[in-house]
Amino acid sequence: MNKKDIWRYKSLEQLENRSWGTATEADSGLIQKCLALVKVPVVKLSASELRLLIGQSFNPTYLVPLALEILQNDVLVTAGMYPGDLLKNVLDVPATFWEEHPDLHKNLIDMMQRRSEEIETELDLPEYWRKAKAEA
Fold first, then answer.
1. How far apart (Å, rounded) are the C-alpha atoms in residues 73 and 102?
2. Residue 20, C-beta contacts closer than 8 angstroms, at least 6 positions apart
3. Which of 44, 51, 63, 93 could be a cystine partner for 79, CB 3.0 to 4.6 Å?
4. Where are the domains positioned within the chain?
5. What's the pTM value of the predicted model, to 2 decimals?
6. More confident residue, 75 or 1
């Protein structure tokens, strides 16, 4: 194992060096699920779990690279809801994240360009991504 990949075997709680606490019966099912998932090593998160955590604005620094790996194999993977739902949540990550991670941004743009016809027939791309794709 490459030392730079050790982060993959840690949970979000470990990576962020913070405790999200334990869910209670009073918490919604969504909160209970998210609080359980932040304790799981990120490499073990499924596409649907990544979709959920990214959609709930959990730390994209660790989650987006893993989501992009899945999307490279199946850009329109169904991650629990509909074809392309993981991609849609990745595309909804704030623009500031992509500005801070130009390598990931380029990776995503390249993938979207290669699969643009397929993507555009399935998803209504956010304006930010339509512009980024056009500029690339």
1. 21
2. 12, 13, 34, 35, 38, 39
3. 51
4. 3-135
5. 0.87
6. 75
Distance CA 66, CA 26 (A): 31
pLDDT tens for 66-109 read 999 999 999 999 999 889 999 999 999 999 999 999 999 999 99
The encoded tokens of residue 28 equal 């919604």
Give the max Cα distance, the chain.
48
Tokens 């969504």 locate to: 30
**Closest by CA position to 80, among listed 25, 30, 21:** 30
Q: What is the mean pLDDT of residues 30-42?
A: 95
| Lookup: tokens for 121 | 């027939």
Type and span of the H or E element at 6: none
98 with 92: CB under 8 angstroms?
no
